[in-house]
Design brief:
The complex is a heterodimer of chains A (157) and B (503). Chain A contains six helices and no strands. Chain A is mainly alpha-helical and 157 residues long. Chain B has one domain. Helix content of chain B is 72%, strand content 0%. The radius of gyration of chain B is 22 Å and the shape is globular. The termini of chain B are far apart. Chains A and B meet through helix 1, helix 2, helix 3, helix 4 and helix 5 of A and helix 9, helix 11, helix 20, helix 21 and helix 22 of B.
Chain lengths: 157, 503
């Protein structure tokens, strides 16, 4: 069950997005603005209704999905693990931008297995090598996908 | 249309029975079985993960890999339902308790066997309907103008909202959010840069594939990570000849099989509703019309047969609107439409004239994938215990790697990766707060089509809104759309005083 404050924040964010969309569209030629206005105005109204419902209505028990793997777990445990997973993803993205795919891939797999998975050195090393070989063999050698250099490597050239 | 000739069939046959394509089908089948059997990984995620690999394949093997992997994944979702009381994919959630109860009663083999057997039969039924209906519908669709297409898209979007699980208000907000995001970029009837902030990347419009990988795969990782390090408790059951008794069950429950397959195909063909909703509906119908409704929930096979056939037939059903109109029937075909465009197989009625051999090859792959499910499904059931013991921690970096490479490869740009991560988090936050993401995705996919047909129709009609109802098919579709929008609202309004008086 989501918290009331998160639901309200989301409804307010959608209201802000739609309001910004509508105001931006007002100065455009009619062919360009018609669709964003037709969509943006009802979106703003419905997001407002949703925000009012969150504030004044009963907490909505309806879920967007029929099954949750994390059901039955403590809310803070799920939140902590989800935040950690999101942090790993953002960290991986930052690493790709900084050092490029060929270095970021083995580094992420190795560090993730060692730190998060708490795997042994042998398994971590072998699995990292296997993933890297698969990545390099499939995407570079076989499919010739060109991966850009990371920013750090470009700067220090 | 006159497209199914011996020559077309021969070409399609040659396209499918090429050793490279057969290897792709086999590899995708194994991949799909693994993804489906691991709780937390879905058939949609399997499709999203296959995207980077399909970029580099010719059209037929690219589509064949998705068809095969998803069919296998939907069946394989039944395996952990029986052994762990956890659905491998949401499509098995409807009868997970029933299947697990059967395993606990010592009927695990029967539950697993019927999952496999009736998935195959349901899948073949859906494929037969797809083969029969899609070309005929395409013939009719050739006569459609922008008015009919406009209503068809609106009808599809309406069904997506009202068939989604949860609150319809949130469904509509999700849909409008998707449509607003879809309006970004230069690709609009005026060719005017909208919401681009002067960025060249944004001017090209938001690429759909990274957004879909983010919303379906990344958000799914975030949703399933809560239990990542908890060991799964597996029910102890003997796994021998799981097909024993299947013919007897087919003869005992033929009506359930037919009804499940037909409902599944129909639900699959409705935009926004996929295999999971088909299974829930079929399970409920099965219970409603059963002679032994009291046995449901105690480990009774009837609901598993009907819902198991239904979820696999829904897969093929979803391809009907996707191929004929370019309107996705479910989240899988939403991704498939993106792949079809990349491969030059632009969906729409003309696909049956311009690419007939490739389309019939795809139909053949559907049949082949369902037949291949028998030996490979049996092998997967036998290997299930080992598969479910695989350490889940190692999956996250591998899945993430595929998501990132897939988002990067579409335009060879890091921007795609950022888009994927951003929409992954947006999708997660939306779903956690009760906003279904399927309507948003449908809005994103159909936004351009809706706008183009809306503006063209407005120009043709000189701004006269009544013109949207003047052509017979357009008028009927328009009225149907209004009914689809009104019925839930009327029911809600009627339900309020009823509930009050009940109190």
């Amino acid at each position: 069950m989501p918290s009331r404050s998160t639901s309200l924040a989301l409804a307010l964010a959608i209201m802000a997005l739609s309001a910004w969309g509508v105001f931006s569209a007002l100065d455009w030629p009619w062919k360009a603005k018609l669709f964003p206005l037709v969509i943006g105005i009802p979106l703003f109204c419905l997001a407002t209704a949703e925000a009012l419902w969150v504030i004044f209505g009963k907490q909505d028990a309806a879920a967007a999905s029929d099954f949750k793997l994390s059901e039955g777990l403590e809310r803070n445990v799920v939140q902590r693990r989800t935040a950690l997973a999101a942090a790993w993803m953002i960290g991986f993205f930052a690493l790709i931008v900084l050092v490029g795919f060929p270095i970021a891939v083995p580094v992420l797999v190795f560090v993730y297995l060692k730190v998060q998975g708490k795997e042994g050195w042998l398994f971590t090393g072998v699995f990292t090598a296997a993933v890297w070989a698969f990545f390099y063999g499939l995407f570079d050698l076989l499919l010739h996908l060109h991966f850009p250099e990371g920013w750090l490597l470009s700067w220090f050239g | 249309m006159g497209l199914l000739t011996a020559s077309v069939l021969a070409q399609a046959f040659a396209l499918v029975f090429d050793p490279y394509v057969l290897w792709v089908i086999l590899a995708s089948a194994i991949f799909g079985l693994f993804v489906g059997a691991v709780p937390g990984l879905t058939a949609t995620m399997a499709t999203a993960l296959l995207v980077p690999v399909t970029f580099f394949m010719p059209p037929v093997p690219a589509i064949a890999s998705i068809v095969t992997a998803t069919a296998m994944a939907i069946f394989a979702g039944d395996i952990p339902s029986c052994l762990l009381r956890m659905p491998g994919t949401p499509a098995s959630a409807a009868y997970t308790d029933e299947a697990y109860a059967m395993t606990k009663k010592g009927q695990g083999e029967l539950a697993l066997g019927s999952g496999l057997w009736f998935s195959i039969l349901g899948g073949l039924f859906g494929t037969a309907v797809l083969i029969a209906a899609a070309p005929s519908l395409a013939e009719i669709a050739l006569k459609f103008s922008s008015f009919e297409y406009f209503w068809l898209v609106v009808l599809g979007l309406a069904s997506a909202v009202f068939l989604a699980i949860g609150n319809p208000l949130k469904g509509v907000v999700s849909l409008l959010f998707g449509l607003l995001v879809a309006s970004e970029g230069l690709d609009n009837p005026a060719g005017f840069p909208r919401f681009t902030f002067g960025s060249a990347e944004l001017a090209g419009g938001l690429t759909l594939i990274p957004i879909m990988i983010g919303m379906f795969a990344v958000s799914e990782i975030l949703r399933s990570v809560g239990r990542i390090d908890e060991p799964w408790e597996m029910a102890q059951t003997k796994i021998g000849n799981v097909l024993h008794g299947m013919w007897g069950l087919t003869k005992r429950y033929p009506w359930q099989l037919l009804r499940g397959s037909a409902v599944g195909t129909a639900i699959g063909a409705l935009p926004g509703a996929g295999a999971d909703i088909a299974a829930w509906m079929s399970y409920a119908i099965s219970k409603r019309f059963s002679k032994e409704p009291e046995k449901f929930g105690t480990g009774h096979i009837e609901g598993i047969i009907e819902a198991g056939a239904s979820n696999n037939s829904a897969l093929a059903g979803a391809w009907i609107p996707a191929l004929v109109f370019g309107i996705p029937g479910d989240s899988i075909t939403a991704i498939v439409i993106g792949v079809l465009y990349i491969k030059g197989l632009n969906p729409g009625p003309t696909i049956f004239m311009n690419n007939a051999p490739a389309i019939y090859a795809v139909f053949m792959v559907f049949i082949l994938a369902n037949l291949l499910m028998l030996p490979l499904g049996l092998a997967a059931i036998r290997a299930a215990k080992q598969m479910l013991r695989a350490p889940r921690e190692v999956l996250l970096p591998v899945i993430l790697l595929f998501c990132i490479v897939g988002s990067f490869a579409i335009n060879n740009s890091i921007f795609g990766v950022a888009l994927m991560l951003a929409f992954g988090i947006v999708g997660y936050v939306m779903e956690e707060n009760g906003f279904p993401i399927a309507p948003a995705i449908l809005g994103l996919v159909l936004g351009a089509m809706l706008e183009e047909n809306f503006i063209s129709s407005m120009i043709k009609a000189d701004g006269r809104l009544l013109a949207f109802f003047e052509r017979p098919i357009a008028g009927s579709l328009g009225i149907l759309t209004i009914v689809v929008f009104s019925v839930p609202l009327i029911r809600r309004t009627m339900a309020v005083p009823w509930r009050r008086s009940e109190k």
